[in-house]
Amino acid sequence: NLGKYGLLRLSYVYEQWPGMYRELLLTGKLAQHCANIDETALQMAEKVRADYLKVHPMPEEDVMERIRLSTQTQMIADEIVTYQLICI
Predict the structure, then answer these.
(1) Is the pLDDT of residue 14 over 90?
(2) Mean pLDDT of all residues belonging to the chain
(3) What is the DSSP string of 17-64?
(4) What is the rounded average pLDDT of the residues 58-76?
(5) For residue 83, what is the DSSP state?
(6) How far is CA 17 from CA 62, 80, 81, 87, in A?
(7) pLDDT band at 20 (very low <50, low <70, confident <90, very high)
(8) 27 class by beta-carbon count within 10 Å (0-12 exposed, 13-18 middle, 19+ buried)
């Protein structure tokens, strides 16, 4: 039941750190490791989005601008989480 970030971490460890992957798999800690990363990453992404929207508030009437800002905020959060938590 891994989310997006847990699956990203699983893929990253599998491809870039095969020794770590094998060790986590053999000790039965792989699923828990990825679940912990997923939970932490979700919290980090939510905080990044909230902080970004404090500086760049959502416009109330322009729907297209709201969509653009929402997409941009998610992309920024994904990039920060990926570089600071997934790919370490």
Answers:
(1) yes
(2) 96
(3) -HHHHHHHHHTT-HHHHHHHHHHHHHHHHHHHHHHHHHHSPPPSS-HH
(4) 95
(5) I
(6) 45, 21, 19, 10
(7) very high
(8) exposed
